[in-house]
């Protein structure tokens, strides 16, 4: 038959992990074209122009491998490494491919370089300098650990699903290779689809280790045909042995063989040493490997065809016949019998069923993520969910907001089948961008093929940088794990401990909570302000919307294109939330209890109009009172007179008047800060102190001008007088009270895009409790009976370096723990009886759950799976080793033992016994907070100041909280029996199955946590062992994973008052000069 030179080959693949990307367009590929007889290079980077296809993963070499389709044999081949092209010609490279197919290894004048981590076809590594055929259904991986070592974490590669040959004359395609033929039409031209026939699959080179879930049916088809081939052979056992013996004679098992669930299929032999064939079931979806274990190999052994392999074929066919269906989208796939053509897509329905079934919301509970390689029916109590299930149906989602530490965007988009037009906003950690002062660094649009995917990099405040200099950076981390899925009729909020990467959703245990909230008939703007949520007799009324909006706004600061998210929250009803949000936002925060009383403000009407407060400052205060401008001191005396006669509020602050300056060219948003004459009701007699900072005025003015809000300022008397008399260079603190404006009810009609941006800034700036003080705000409203406490545990994947006795005491105190001898005291002092450092040293309050290094080393994948996932400083271990605080983290349920945990879960449990009846209550936290001061905050005290007025010292000595990270979690409260609750009736704390065994086993005398030092030592042992086992000097390139760094925070117990920045001084000088010029012009 005449042979035709194929011009182009179309290959359809299913990506595993990081997708294959076109080197020219930068777009992810599931279908790509290649020319026959030309090598194509796959590597990590296309910047040098030498990679035709790119996989952006750290374990991929710059030039990893080459693929070539041979027009003579109509087969696709892969080569580990790159054969360097001689003078731009493909002919010699093609000839070299052909030479290697027949075993010739001499390269002649050509040079090649193998990849570092290898190429694996069906989990068998392609030998260096050898060419391997790749057929339909084959799994190609670009790193898979060493032979015999399971390392499925972060697998990257693809499964070949179709190979289509295109040519001018489709009627004369060579079939000498033995492929089965099938024709289908795409509308414009006919195509031939080739699949391997039975007589091709007995090659020992190919290997028969079907991949997981993806392409299961295609691989099973080949496996069934292979089993039939074995039955027809004269020596079935030899056929089995051939499929598991590599070129070098070493046994090449599936790299996950020893770690997955297995079932035995007996092979009957005539008294020889054949043990069994093991079939590995992967999540109940077929076979992932076939292994034969032999004591004394003998080529004369015969298999009883009535048992063993015959039963295996029947079992496979019966199992998969029950889980296949005909898809509406007809595509030519590999048919079961290898003969029929034009068959529709055949696939397993388990995945579709799980998506179509409605998930039961967790309520006051959480799910665990669905791990691959685990049979879900093997466990009992704990419910599981996958990321695609959480987004299903993705077609109804209008927009998505995500917050994560690390991210693999392309994996997420392809894993969840996200439409390319769908708006997706992803807030992510990037040290360089988050510390940058340039607003342009806040966002990026990284994927041209997904133009509506926007990356946001939330800012880290300069006040927590080393030396308060942003260029020095500091300890800070954007660490939340949040999903917001907006639909027309509802909005879903998901809080998890898993980052947006495949490994943490598929291979590492994480917690997942979500709730759907219905749409309101009309937007409720006031739901954005927590102070409008009055307390009830049942404790703190849920302020879920205000907390969610405040946290989201802090992430979206300086990102005008995403400010609309804040208004979207007002369209949904969050009143029946199952739990309380607990957020951390980096910065130095003032502790601010609720004080919405008449004594808190100068006017009783403010208690009804009050929405919140903002911590700001006064800039340019000393300008008017300098000797050059006030040589006689008249202005200073006048100011002192007004201040002395002005009545303070309950917090020792003076009320000021704010007025807009619209005629100042330097800034049309300028706001003046005035001290009025207390004897003048008209307030036209005043002394000007200065101005609001530019960063505050830019959002105050547009909201004030249109009448949405009103603003009132408060300052401390001594700060004002100190700065005015030039006795202090400190920044003068000004607290803005935000009040309802006359037009607030018409906001939905009047609001413009620039108002939305200003509103986002306002919500982000509102003072709210954060970190441990937010925890105290939620839990401190209940009277927890200390004598009935039965357990207090905290499990985290990172234990901060500043997790000192003081931090432990602060956390326990915030969680409501009291010193038992003071518990029943009726003292009004809120600090009375609080858990202190002394109590914590004498009786540690919390059991810290963290894995021992031996547990990590004995995991399914050893130290590799937990590297860059756990963080525990050696210094903290030395401080804790004799305190009996640490307990081993034993995963729960049992089938998760051996898999690493990335959870952050705390529980305080109480047990009340009345007669023969006992009941449990308490609270449970789940989210992103690790047990560290960086996440929860460290209390610091203000340095002393020269204060002539001693009357307010007690009030003003307010502690502050230094928080380094963005974090988010959810707290479920189960109040004591005597305190009523009106939410989630029927929920019990005992319904929450913790993801670790309780009571957790205490560390033994020889146990040691998986500290950084212990992990490095264990990894060094692993490298040494893997090198000797494999006889090679190279190891896998390190894959970066999450590691929350935290430096020692000792010595940071105090903070120093800030001074005005140079840019603020310049701004104030420009405003003062133009205000004086304007006044002079009016006078003349």
TrEMBL record:
Positions with biased composition (Basic and acidic residues): 1049-1059
Q: Which UniProt keywords apply?
A: Hydrolase, Metal-binding
Q: Which residues form the FHA domain?
A: 40-126
Q: Where is this region: Disordered?
A: 1026-1084
Composition skew (Acidic residues), residue ranges = 1033-1048
Cellular component (GO) terms are: nucleus
* Residues annotated to bind substrate: 481, 904
GO MF annotation, one: hydrolase activity, acting on acid anhydrides, in phosphorus-containing anhydrides
Q: What biological-process terms (Gene Ontology) are attached?
A: DNA repair
Could you say which residues are annotated as the site Interaction with DNA?
Answer: 932
Please list the residues that make up the active site: 479, 902
Q: What is this protein called?
A: FHA domain-containing protein
The source organism is Arabidopsis thaliana (Mouse-ear cress)
